[in-house]
Write a structure and sequence with these properties.
The protein is α+β, with helices and mostly antiparallel strands and about 375 residues long. The protein has 2 domains: about 140 residues, Creatinase/prolidase N-terminal domain (Creatine Amidinohydrolase, Chain A, domain 1, 3-Layer(aba) Sandwich); about 220 residues, Creatinase/methionine aminopeptidase superfamily (Creatine Amidinohydrolase, Alpha-Beta Complex), CATH 3.90.230.10. The strands form 5 sheets. Strands 4-3-2-1-5-6 form a 6-stranded mixed sheet. Strands 7, 8, 9, 10 and 18 form a 5-stranded mixed sheet that branches. It contains 10 helices and 18 strands. Strand 2 and strand 3 form a beta hairpin.
Length: about 375
């Protein structure tokens, strides 16, 4: 059985459990996970439709031939001079989806693609993918684990390269460039490289720029790359020479927050309990107002995907879920500290992908 066949079987089990008649996925991460590819995404309606016993793609003729190199699913083709209406009606008839009463729509699909579906199934109840494809994507198998581990080790190497280039007088953008070059040399695509020196580190999503890095400035380095359809994400702290007064104390608080979240993350625990554990440490230390974001996010085909480790998330954590633990403290006009690791949840707690310590890198 191929990976696609296995995932279709899992999806159909979820559809049966949720009493779903039809799942419609557009070109994007959900389709990539299910089929191992997705066609070029543009304004031409294109999606895959899955029922209990069939699967078929609505496909622009321009993309059909190339897509056949990646899938053997049947296609309802349409050309620009015909439009997609008649092809979609044929798809509904051939798959039996014309009588669907409960449908799942890809929440990332273009609105006009979704409208094509709902216009032809006006009496169907519509939900999104949270309990079907989304739920399945959250639980990684061992093949996905191996690819995520590979990506994490590439990020470790890229972080080390960043440290090697971190010197007084160098600009943030130059360090980021070295990190990106490291990803490329390893066969990965650079996805992001936040380098925030001194006061810039107090902005969690600082736009890396021309700031010249000086001695004594703590530097936030949040980086990620992608290969084999998966990605990495890691944040570490570095400083040239001696950090400013009070830095070590705040770093220790953030590390304690990470450890509290690691201890709280267990199968059967709600995601919000992990966020609460991380947040409580920082609040008790008097820095609660400076922890300004969620504790974590899932990672896999996408850099940000469920589960989200937030104060309001009722998601029950399960073995195989992959997510970040990344609390932070951001002190305006001084510095910011974020320590981030990606973990996979095992029966006895989180396994960290990275092999880099979270200690301050002193250069």
């Amino acid at each position: 059985m191929t990976q696609t066949q296995e995932r279709l079987a899992l999806l159909r089990q979820a559809m049966t459990a949720e009493q779903v008649d039809l799942v419609v996925l557009g070109p994007g991460a959900h389709m990539q996970w299910l089929l191992g590819f997705h066609p070029h995404a543009d304004e031409r309606p294109s999606f895959v439709c899955i029922t209990a016993d069939s699967a078929m793609m609505l496909m622009p003729a321009l993309n059909a031939e190339g897509s056949r190199d990646h899938t053997d699913l049947p296609m309802a083709e349409w050309s620009d001079d015909q439009g997609p209406e008649s092809a979609f009606k044929r798809l509904l008839a051939e798959t039996g989806a014309a009588t669907a009463r409960k449908i799942v729509l890809d929440e990332t699909m273009r609105a006009d693609f979704a409208a094509l579906v709902t216009d032809h199934l006006p009496d169907a109840t519509r939900i999104f993918t949270e309990t079907t494809v989304g739920a399945l994507r959250m639980r990684k198998d061992e093949g996905e684990y191996a690819l995520l581990k590979k990506n994490a080790l590439m990020a470790d190497a890229a972080m080390r390269t960043g440290w090697e280039h971190l010197k007084a007088g160098v600009r943030e953008i130059e360090v980021a460039g070295a990190i990106q070059a490291s990803f490329k040399a390893q066969g990965a695509q650079p996805l992001f490289s936040i380098v925030g020196a001194g006061r810039n580190g107090a902005f969690p999503h600082h736009a890396t720029g021309q700031t010249v890095i000086a001695e004594g400035q703590p530097v936030v380095m949040d980086i990620g790359g992608g290969s084999d359809g998966f990605s990495s994400d890691i944040t570490r702290m570095a400083v040239i020479d001696t950090p400013p007064e009070g830095y070590d104390e705040v770093h220790a608080i953030v590390e304690a927050s990470v450890q509290a979240a690691m201890q709280a993350a267990r199968p059967g625990v709600q995601a919000k309990a992990v966020d609460a554990a991380a947040r409580q440490v920082i609040t008790d230390a008097g820095y609660g107002e400076f922890f300004v974001h969620r504790t974590g996010h899932g990672l896999g085909v996408e850099i940000h995907e469920p589960p989200y480790i937030t104060a309001t998330s009722d998601t029950v954590l399960e073995e195989g879920m992959v997510f970040s633990i990344e609390p932070g403290i951001y002190l305006p006009e001084r510095f910011g500290i974020r320590l981030e690791d990606i973990v996979i949840l095992r029966a006895d707690g989180p396994e960290v992908f990275s092999e880099l310590p979270r200690d301050l890198m002193r250069l």
